[in-house]
Write a structure and sequence with these properties.
- By secondary structure, this protein is an alpha+beta fold.
- The chain has a single domain, classed as Maf protein.
- The protein is 32% helix and 24% strand.
- Strands 1, 2, 3, 4, 5, 6, 7 and 8 form an eight-stranded mixed sheet that branches.
- The longest helix has 18 residues.
- The termini are close together.
């Protein structure tokens, strides 16, 4: 019997680590190996040309499954700030330039929000994932995680915009949470919970 394997279609190490933990927790009992795109030399990095999160996730998942011959999972996510009309949104990673460090990106956003009062600093992380199989099957899921933007970065954990994303119910930013706890409540965790029954069904079909 061929090995059961799923490949995370991302070149982002921090994101891949978070997704891998969620996949291993949900699929461990089925004997599924979780592989990273870094395990496949010369793996493609397709342009994210879609105008939706779901569309970009589909592009990456399809490219990965075609290259690896394995089931692939890709995500696309962004930070949507209401007072900035949803910016940076789908362009969160490329906001202020793809090579710009996240502390600089966060500083720019905070400057843009400097005159915005607390009650209008609402925001959300939105995440979409796509699961593609070598046979051409495709499933997509999307979810959000609501919070507010702080007035200054707080916390050393997490990655990306976590230090300025405040969760009122917890009284702290995502970057102030232990990584294992944050990874259980994040936008990726939420959408992965939606997707897990479908993923499990795909691998149970291989038994």
């Amino acid at each position: 019997m061929a090995a059961k394997r799923i490949v995370i279609a991302s070149h982002n190490r921090s994101k891949s680590k978070e997704i891998a933990m969620l996949l291993e927790q949900g699929l461990r009992d089925l004997g599924v190996e979780v592989a990273l795109l870094a395990d496949y030399p010369n793996a493609p990095q397709p342009d994210e040309t879609a105008d939706t999160y779901v569309g970009n996730a589909i592009i990456k998942a399809r490219a990965c499954t075609q290259f690896t011959g394995e089931i692939a999972l890709a995500d696309d996510a962004g930070l949507e700030i209401d007072a900035l009309n949803g910016q940076p949104g789908r362009f969160s990673r490329r906001f202020a330039g793809e090579a710009t460090p996240f502390p600089v990106k966060m500083g720019i956003l905070l400057n843009m929000l400097s005159a915005v009062p607390e009650e209008r600093r609402t925001a959300r992380f939105r995440c979409a994932i796509a699961i593609a199989t070598p046979a051409g099957d495709l499933c997509t899921f999307e979810d959000t995680f609501a919070g507010r933007i702080t007035h200054a970065p707080r916390g050393q954990a997490g990655f990306g915009y976590d230090p300025i994303f405040y969760v009122p119910e917890l009284g702290c930013t995502l970057a102030e949470l232990p990584s294992e706890f944050k990874n259980r409540i994040s936008h990726r965790a939420r959408v992965m919970r939606q997707a897990m029954p479908t993923l499990r069904a795909l691998f149970q079909q291989q038994e």
